[in-house]
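Field reference: sequence -> structure
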Amino acid sequence: MESNTPNPELITSKLIEAENLLEEEEEFHHLNNPADGIKPVVKKYLGVPNHADQVGNKFYFTDGDAKVEVIVVTDEIIRVRLAPHSVFLDDFSYGVPKLPTKAAGFTLHEDDNEFRVSTYKVNCHIRKKDFFISFSDSSNHVTSIDAVPMHWEENVQAGGYYVFCTKTCAPDESFFGLGDKPTEFNLRGKRLKNWNTDAYSFQWNQDPLYRSIPFYISVNEGIAHGIFFDNTFKAQFDFGAEDRTKTSFWADGGELQYYYIHGPHMMDVVKSYHTLTGTHPMPPLWALGYHQCRWSYYPEAKVRKIAKGFRENQIPCDGIYLDIDYMDGYRCFTWNRKYFPDPKKMISELAADGFKTVVIIDPGIRVDDNYEVFREGKEKRYFCRRSDDYFMEGHVWPGRCQFPDFTNPEVREWWGGLFDELVQMGVAGVWNDMNEPAVFGAGTFPDDVRHQYDGYRGSHRKAHNIYGMQMVRSTYEGLRKIMKNKRPFTITRAGYSGVQRFSSVWTGDNVASWEHLKLGNIQCQRLSISGIPFCGTDIGGFSGEPDGELFTRWIQMGTFSPFMRAHSAGDTKEREPWSFGEPFTAINRKFIELRYRLIPYLYSTFWEHHRYGFPILRPIVMHEQDTQLNHFRQDEFTYGDKILVCPVMEPGQIKRNVYLPKGKWYNFWTYEVVDGGQEVSVDTPLETMPVFIKAGSVIPEYPVMQYVGHKEIEEVKLNIYYTDYEVNSFLFEDYGETFAYEQDIYLEKKFVVNGSSKNLTIDQSLEGLYTPRYDGYHFNLIGLPFTPSKIKVDGKEVKEFQLNDDKTVEFKYSKNFKHIEISK
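Structure field:
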């Protein structure tokens, strides 16, 4: 029989359980409004790093919530990436197609104060007390340090985060780069935005413009480093504008991801940047000639008249452009048969006279079911759609248009194939315009337009800045496939970092003014050191009316722009090189002829860019970054490292000061030798401009031609400038229009010049498999301090040489020489 007596231990246990349950009920508060518990949206900062992990060349640091990834890319490049809640986005970039991993070695060190990731050239420090990230060189000299920890703010409306990075700004720190910003060359004190924008007749300090290049170079205490903020969203950069002690960059979305690129020289930074984003492929040789454009040359009779004008005036020209009026109702890939009844015949006859035809193609496709391009794009769902699945529509030149999604590889393939008929007609190049993208009235696409983004998905907030780049990528890749082994020529108005892999650029719709001549000079230098080497301006200005003097001074500057094209709006007077009469026609002819004489030098400089990552235009600060005053020089530049140019940018100017970097320089026109490291006064009558050649240079020269390929090259002139110290020069040669150079079918010639008071030696070495058709060199020795009595080539004496009144010495010899000695 069971006992009815209560168990004291069981009773006690039940009482405790009941009390605990009562306490829990008292603590629980049911909220009628759950939103009351949501914290306000504020900026959040990295906390204290408490852990580090390593996976190969990737290092991860966390404060318990956020995570930072540090990747050793090369010995000079370290990538930093932030995930606010430790979840990184997919690692994909249009700017960096493939992340190089070339570091010789790296280590992770931890002590009481910091974590440190090191290569043999650079250290990345993660400070334990506050998550500040800094960088130093192998001598432990700090080059970059956070002013506050990296931070972010939730974007409630669109999702994701606004992301911010703020670094200290030293008192004498200077900043360069960021693409085509129309402002002073040194960006110190500026606040600038990246958001591709159609900026017709832009003005000084107007921002943003057509391109978004989120890469800048800092120079402080003689040491350079770069920051590449690889984020395609709308981004801003503050170089000590709001607070002189701080430099910041931030974006409206995406990840806080940047590359620290160590120098110590600006040239090192640019070369390393090109290892990330790529270099420009070798252009067809004709693309380095003079190009003529207008909105618009039509009908066909007008095009022929322009071509005839060049040949009758004996002014060299290689390219003639057709703007939107060649199309049927501005429909891309069509012809207006009223204006151009037989385009294939016209293009063929222009080609027979040495002219390449370049046509414009815009992204807006007219909504018209009778238009094959629209019908096919619609059927295959290739056009951009908005978030609620309506097509993105907007008005541009053809009227109501839809727009291909060039972030979709299938669409790019389709678009590239559409060029087949144009290529079969003989079109040699394509000009992509309006691809910011521009939309009349609205400016551009709404933010909610969706993009395939190569499978990584995104709204237009993410895709806007790369839309134009992906359009010209589609154009370039399509042309390359259709043209087989021939090099395409493309030009684009809009772009993002890496666009140089596919296209040249111009600075957009400028104005016929002296101010814009100055702006164009700065913009081309800035583009060149920002990774976009094949750049130029609309010579003479797109809008407005230049007089003969302004146009001629612009031609002179354009002679030393990588891309040389005159272009003007349809409501302006025509401006061909002969439009202003004499003396302007003769001077314009002289400089365009000079361009063609220098093509082997210009082409060799392009090879130095393509193969080695050198910029083509180099500002003075790139030559001498240790001198603070040079941080503010923006008139002079060198084309390559051998030819220094200083455009004349004031009306009526007959003399100007020119700064020459250290070393000896020759006045190109007079052969006068000038010591560098100083400003010199140079006469600048209209028929000339300051051009100097670095002592020791070997400047190759072709005979004057009316177009590239006009004449068979029978010999190459080598202009050799005496030096009393060793100087290297290069000459690159290949077929000029194929991709054979990718299989080493080229010739890279290296010349080494050295001299003394009694002799001069020239050595030549060769690399590559190409054999030029000419047999010999015509040597022109400039600046010899002695009268030569003996010239020996590879041990054999040259009996015939000529002493000229200007003290130059000329002789001819085989192109295959190895060693030349000229002695007193």
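Note: Residues 74 and 103 are 4 Å apart (CA to CA).
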